[in-house]
């Protein structure tokens, strides 16, 4: 089979997710709920016949990945190219703090679009190019296999838009949840979506925590 199946999951809920603080390349611990989500994800993935687990190297993703492999026993391959967007000067702040401290940068962020580079950070287009290039690079190494990727909301959003050729400046009309399960297939240079937003494994720990703002 000339197809690679990717099970792409977002990390469990973090303290900053819960408080509406922009994380980017900074980190915060998983909440109690986030830990429960990661454990439930591990139990679910133990039923899948996957060969390798890749993860962003940011702490919230690695913590989630470790809780998966506690159940499945797979080694973890980490890579910085699976990181969330670098939010530069906005990192560690909530929306009101960003508007108060950086009013002009906040205005540009809201109006310029996907090519706006946050000072000290990167643009949406740069982030998605980084993410998709890495996923496309590893796909041929796993032809005929299923692999798991633990990453971030922005990475999932970018891959979804890339798969369906949705412009980056188009309003987002789809949701992604912490520890939700999403299945993409890569075949002959093209991406296909098979499953989006499966949270059936989270029914006892809750699912609707929103995304990184």
Task: Jot down its keywords.
Rossmann fold; globular; alpha/beta; 213 residues; 36% helix; 6-stranded mixed beta sheet
Q: Which CATH C-level class is it?
A: Alpha Beta
Q: SSE order in H/E notation?
A: EHHEHEHHHEHEE
Round the Cα radius of gyration to an integer and report it: 17 Å
Largest sheet: 6 strands, mixed
Number of helices: 7
Summing up helix and strand content along with how strands pair, one would put the structural category as: alpha/beta
Précis, in short:
By secondary structure, the protein is of the alpha/beta class.
Topology overview:
Layout: E1 3-10, H1 15-19, H2 32-45, E2 52-56, H3 59-72, E3 76-79, H4 95-101, H5 103-111, H6 124-138, E4 146-151, H7 153-164, E5 181-187, E6 190-198
Parallel strand pairs: 1-4, 2-3, 2-4
Antiparallel strand pairs: 1-5, 5-6
Helix pairs in contact: 2-3, 4-5, 6-7
Structure notes:
This protein has helices at residues 15-19, 32-45, 59-72, 95-101, 103-111, 124-138, 153-164; strands at residues 3-10, 52-56, 76-79, 146-151, 181-187, 190-198. It has 213 residues and is of the alpha/beta class. It has a single domain, classed as 3-Layer(aba) Sandwich (Rossmann fold), CATH 3.40.50. Strand 2 (52-56), helix 3 and strand 3 form a beta-alpha-beta unit. The longest helix is centred in the middle third of the chain and has 15 residues, at 124-138.
